[in-house]
Amino acid sequence: MRENNFLSSHLGKLNTNKLFDIMDSTNFLKTCRLDPIQPSVTERYFTPKLITQYDQCVLKHSNRLCIITLAPSHPILSQNLLVKSVHFDTSGNQNRLCNKVSGKFKKGGQKLKEDSVLCTVKCSDESEHILYSCISGKLVEINERLIENPSLLTEKPWSDGYVGIVLPPFISSRRNFAENTESKKKCNE
C-alpha cells in the first residue's frame, strides 16, 4: 500500500498509516454513474481518498480543491440511517454558514484544522454523527442544500450530498507535488 503524500502532510498529528484504504477507494464512485459504461464526472475529475479514522472521504481535484463527503463505511450509509437534520453550528462561536469567501485566493474563508467540526448530523434513530474537515485549509463552501434536504447526504453522498469544500494551503501542495514527481521518477526507473 502506497502512502498518500497530499493528505498526509495536511493531517498533522494523526496516524497516517491507518488512515487510508487506497486499494478500493475508487470502486464506490461507480455508484455515481448515469451510464454504466462511462465514468461519472466525480470519477473523471476527482481522486478519492478514504479517511478511515472519521469514516469520511476527501475528493481531491487537480486545482487543489477538496470536497468532503461521507465514506461508504460511515454508519449513516452502512446502516442506512434516515437523516433528520444537519446543523452547521459548531461548538463555540463558529457557525459554518457564516463563512464568506471572495477573490481568486478565497480570502475570508474560515481556517480549518484536520479535526475541525464541519457539521452535526441527526438521524431518525436519535443518533448524532459529527462530520470533520479531515484536512487543514480554508473553508470555501458549505453545502447549504443539506439544511432543506438532509436526505441528499444518503441519496447522493458523492455528488449533490457533499458536506463542504476546502482549499488546502498552496505551499504544502507544492511540496507534495515535488514529492509525487520524485516518487514517479523512481517508479519509472
UniProtKB/TrEMBL annotation:
GO terms, biological process: dendrite morphogenesis; regulation of actin filament polymerization; regulation of filopodium assembly
Superkingdom of the source species: Eukaryota
Pfam family, one: GCV_H
InterPro entries documented for this protein: Abitram, GCV_H/Fam206, Single_hybrid_motif
GO MF terms, alphabetically ordered: actin filament binding; actin monomer binding
GO cellular component: dendrite; filopodium tip; lamellipodium; nucleus
Family to which the UniProt record says this protein belongs: Belongs to the ABITRAM family.
Name by which UniProt lists this protein: Protein Abitram
Source organism of this protein record: Oedothorax gibbosus
